[in-house]
Amino acid sequence: MNNVMLITGGSRGIGAATAQLAFEAGYAVALSYRSDRDAASAVVEAIEAKGGEAIAVQADMASEANIVRLFEAVDERFGRLDVLVNNAGIVDQVSRVEAMSAERIERMMRINVTGPFLCAREAIKRMSTRHGGNGGSIINVSSAAAHRGGSGEYVDYAASKGAIDTFTEGLAKELAGDGIRVNAVRPGVIDTEIHASGGNPDKPETSSANIPLGRAGNAREIASGILWLASEGASFTTGAKLDIDGGV
Description:
Blueprint: E1 4-7, H1 13-24, E2 28-33, H2 37-49, E3 54-58, H3 64-78, E4 83-86, H4 102-127, E5 136-141, H5 145-148, H6 155-175, E6 180-187, H7 194-197, H8 203-206, H9 219-230, E7 241-244
Parallel strand pairs: 1-2, 1-4, 2-3, 4-5, 5-6, 6-7
Helix pairs in contact: 1-2, 1-9, 3-4, 4-6
């Protein structure tokens, strides 16, 4: 059996690119999606068409029951888990803080922070040598916004990713003796659909002038960083936050 990588939010963007690179690296792939079943199925079908193994499982990261069911589906299909990529996340409409509702902030934190915590909890139960597992790797998808603040656009999103940075460092130390490495990637502006969902579809183009490398990144560039952190090449790397942001 190949090693198994679970990618949350794997139907598009960084998640879909990570699924493709994981297959190319020899992993069996499980991915979750919230609502776009067709997009998730297309990722799975593309992998299976090339002889790989993949499954897609509907799971809302705002639901603990959905998260538990996701991991049970991975158990049933593959019987093991080696890498968790906490990729699923949301942004909201561009807004200043004084215009944000409690509901918006709570939803942001529930999906972007509590969801990854619960996914990590389930992965630890399966991978930790303390629980009879073989070890593994957790990679959290943070953001350059975690250290830039997101002012005037989405301070709530930036704050949620700041929490992911702290979570990464603390969990890495907690699990170092359990055979699990925990790291994060921090993408800058990446040309994916997430900007449209936040009402700012032109952000990759309009931000280019402020990026030292002169352009937005692409999903495969972030996926490459994730696959490196999961690999034996990063065997002495834990608690790291890998900036892939064009130099911002």
